Amino acid sequence: MSNPETLSLYDTLTRSYKEFPPQDSPARTNPDEPISYYTCGPTVYDSAHIGNFRAYIFEDQVVRALEYLGWKVKQVMNITDVDDKTIKGANPTGADNEPRILRERLDAYTAPYIEAFFADIDKLNIRRAAVYPRATRTIGAMVLLVGRLIEKGFAYRGEDGSWYFPIRQFPGYGWLSGLDLEQVSVGARVDSDEYDKLDARDFVLWKTRRPGEPSWDPTEYDAASPLPPGRPGWHLECSAMSGRHLGETLDMHSGGHDNIFPHHENEIAQSEAANGTTFVRHWLHCGYLLVENQKMSKSLGNFFTLQNLLDRGHEALAVRLLLLSTHYRKPLNFTFDGLRGAEANLKRLREFLRRLEREEASAPVAPDEELGLGGTGAGPLLSKLKDDFAAALRDDLNISKALAAVFELVGTLNRLLDGGGVRREEIAAARKTLLGFDEVLGLRLGENAGKATIEPAWVEERLAARQQARRERDFARADALRDELAAAGVVVEDTPEGPRWHVE
RNA sequence: GGCGGCAUAGCCAAGUGGCUAAGGCAGAGGAUUGCAAAUCCUUCAUUCCCCGGUUCGAGUCCGGGUGCCGCCUCCA
């Protein structure tokens, strides 16, 4: 393995391109040290939609690209399993009960959504992160974090016992989002439990227990904790979980553009106030997803989960290809036209790999090949394309350029193979190059997952009958046999060397 | 109102001052085929939202518009 290559990546905080990994990242000097990468995960109150998956696929691209370029990565993705929506979902009537019962109800409510989330990311071939910490299982770390904030004077208690973070005390507040605190309008609406904030813009760290809401007793984790029984505020979990699994300073943190404010802004404030160290060296955010040029919403009827698309007969990996083929920082306009285009592209890539495998297996090893002669000189082309591909990734993950290299490989090799005389080792090298690209694209080109298993003898029997019919020029019968095979998912292609088939 | 992003062919999209504006999808014509499929060839933006300006030269820089999108504190 050659030395890892650095990338030029846009950084949200400085609004500029920066070299990644950052200079002060331990991964830069210690080859065994992984890049620490924290990603905001799902709130499990419902099935994730394709807008969520754009972010998760983008983050998967980041990991895959870094690994392709030679880096080790430790990715952590949180699962938010306690917030207002999950609480409401778990206990719609608001009936009060013991905290333990309410916590159990919450777990029972989120469990199927957690399961669905993992099933979906598997279908989309999103690699699993190293850890998926759950908020409800990390309460102790959150309690300790608030404890440190209290010690340092970065938290105050409201009248009802909830604790808040005083944003005015944190000098860097607003930096990430570029918001000027004085300009942020303080809404006229003041929530009933916000009356005792010192500043209406302060955010809650720990909410005191309300009837009907699951709660945790902080003294179970820290006997000296002044926090009342209650639950964590929205932002606290990410600061606590990232610290627990990746340390006080992260190489990279990413999420959707809409997480910048207030979520990530508040994470910075909490973590840096508590630890006195830089929280994140590099911030990365992906753009929004539109559907047919409109915001995705249930009322417009353009709201899609992955399952909705599968139900319409689309393929998860085509959805993946579509969602990754727009540069991560640009708005992505999801259309069914685009999805069909992605399906065509995916088919072309699969077809190309099949051709390489087929021709590699049948290519004779010519006498001059043993001498290293002959062939078409595909080698230099392949190394150029690999260079182009890697350079595209290093250029702020320029996926369009990377895909151009992939399709140049397809077009050029198809031409060479049509011309003949390609050496077996050249074909093998092309195949390996394509599969190498797919390590980043994640389209499972080299796998046959999900394909129907067909009994070859059954197919051969029909093919033989069809050939017989063709020889007799009984094309109606030949086409009927081909249709029968097609119905079973078998695609037949006639060639000068006879028919060949594959399962689709 | 404040802050930020985007605008390139029917669709997706690269491009960050200089040869003929990448690549993909769709379309058209052709080779091949019994018909298909796959593949290949040809074709598909005198032009980059509009108006000015800078420059020998601008899609690329500057100014001004227009349009679309996001954020401006969770629980609304």
Descriptive notes:
With 504 residues, this protein is α/β, with parallel strands linked by helices. The protein folds into 3 domains: 280 residues, Rossmann fold (3-Layer(aba) Sandwich), CATH 3.40.50.620; 105 residues, Four Helix Bundle (Hemerythrin (Met), subunit A); 48 residues. The protein is built from 16 helices and 15 strands. The strands form 5 sheets. It has a 4-stranded parallel β-sheet with strand order 4-3-9-10, with helices on both faces. A 4-stranded antiparallel β-sheet has the order 5-6-7-8, covered by helices on one side. It starts with 6 loop residues before the first strand and ends with a strand. About 2% of the residues have low confidence. The protein binds one RNA strand of 76 nucleotides through helix 3, strand 7, helix 7, strand 12 and helix 10.
